[in-house]
Specification:
15 helices; 55% helix; 310 residues; mainly alpha; two-stranded parallel sheet
C-alpha cells in the first residue's frame, strides 16, 4: 500500500514583525497579551494538520486552551477578534467553517516547494501561488444550483452544524446573582446618580454585554472583582471620568489609565508627620529635612514634653 501523502508541516515560519502587525496589535488590545499564545497555537494546528487551513470546532477550542493553559472561552474570544480584523479570512469561515488566510496559504505553498506532490482544494484557495508542477488543485464540486434535493438538505444540515461551532454563536449568559452581572448593575446605579449623565440616558443598558466586558476585565486583564468595584466608585466620583465612563466597555478601555491616576492622587494626599507640634508651628517631616534648625526646635519640644510627662 502506498504511503499517504503528507499534508502538514513539521515547522512553520513566524514573521519577525508578528507582534508589530496591526491585526495582532488589535487582537492583543482587545483580548490581552495571552492572545499571542492562542494565535500561535492556532497557527500551529493549521500548519501541522492540513497545512493551509483547519476546520473550527469544539475540539480545537479545547485543545488550544489546554495547551496554552487558559479557558475555552478565551480561545473563542480571540478567534472572534481574529476574524473581525481579518487575521483569519472571514468569508472562508462563514462559508466553510475553516480558519485560514492568504498569508497562511502563501507560506504553506512556499514551505512545500520541495515535495513531489501538494494537493489543494480549489474552494479553499486564497493564494495565487499555485503555478508549480507539484501542485494539484482539486476542482470544485457541483454548484448549488445543480444539487439534488438530498444533497441540498445535507448541505443545509452541515451549515446549521457549522453555525453551532461558530465562535460567534457561543454567547455567554450571566446569572443575575453573578459578580459580573452585579457589577454591571452597580455601574449603572452609580452613573444614574449623576444628574448630567441622566439627561443623556435614554434607555437601560444591555446588562449581559456589560457583564461580559467586566468578565474580560477580571479574567483577561487580571483585575479582581473588588478592585473593579472600587474603580467604579472612584471614577463615578471624579468630575472628569464620570462624564466619560458611561458603559462597561469604556470602564475596561480606560481602567489602566484611571488606576494610575487614582494611585497618583492617593500618593499626593499622604502626609507623614513625626509628632504633633505646638500651635505656633506645625512642621512636616519634609520641612524638617529641608531646614535642620526647624528639626532641632521640634526635637527639643518633643524632649521637653516627654520630660514633663515623666
Amino acid at each position: 500500500m502506498a504511503r499517504p501523502t503528507k499534508k502538514g508541516l513539521d515547522y512553520f515560519p513566524l514573521d519577525v514583525n508578528f507582534l508589530s502587525d496591526i491585526k495582532v496589535r488589535r487582537i492583543v488590545k482587545a483580548c490581552g497579551s495571552e492572545s499571542v499564545h492562542i494565535l500561535i497555537a492556532l497557527l500551529a494546528y493549521i500548519y501541522r494538520d492540513d497545512g493551509y487551513h483547519v476546520r473550527w470546532n469544539d475540539d480545537i477550542a479545547f485543545l488550544v486552551a489546554d495547551e496554552v493553559g487558559t479557558k475555552e472561552g478565551s480561545v473563542v474570544e480571540v478567534t472572534n477578534k481574529a476574524l473581525q480584523v481579518n487575521f483569519f479570512d472571514k468569508d472562508m469561515f462563514d462559508n466553510y467553517n475553516i480558519l485560514t488566510s492568504k498569508g497562511i496559504q502563501d507560506r504553506y505553498v512556499l514551505a512545500t516547494k520541495e515535495r513531489k506532490e501538494v494537493v489543494l482544494e480549489e474552494k479553499y484557495l486564497l493564494t495565487k501561488e499555485v503555478n508549480r508542477s507539484n501542485i494539484i488543485v482539486m476542482p470544485r464540486h457541483n454548484s448549488v444550483n445543480g444539487l439534488s434535493n438530498t444533497q441540498r438538505k445535507e448541505k443545509e444540515s452541515k451549515k446549521k452544524k457549522s453555525n453551532k461551532d461558530s465562535p460567534k454563536s457561543r454567547k455567554r449568559i450571566y446569572d443575575e446573582s453573578s459578580d459580573y452581572y452585579q457589577l454591571s448593575l452597580h455601574l449603572y446605579q452609580k452613573i444614574n446618580q449623576d444628574t448630567a449623565a441622566k439627561e443623556d440616558w435614554t434607555k437601560q443598558p444591555n446588562y449581559q454585554n456589560w457583564a461580559d466586558d467586566i468578565r474580560k476585565l477580571v479574567e483577561l486583564d487580571g483585575k479582581s472583582v473588588e478592585k473593579v468595584r472600587k474603580m467604579i466608585d472612584w471614577c463615578q466620583g471624579d468630575n472628569f471620568w464620570k462624564t466619560n465612563i458611561l458603559s462597561a466597555q469604556k470602564l475596561r478601555d480606560h481602567f489602566e489609565k484611571m488606576e494610575k491616576q487614582a494611585k497618583s492622587l492617593r500618593a499626593k494626599k499622604t502626609v507623614t508627620r513625626k509628632e504633633i507640634l505646638p500651635d505656633w508651628k506645625e512642621v512636616t517631616e519634609e520641612e524638617m529635612m529641608i531646614d535642620p534648625e526647624v528639626e532641632k526646635r521640634a526635637q527639643a519640644y518633643i524632649a521637653s514634653k516627654k520630660a514633663v510627662e515623666k
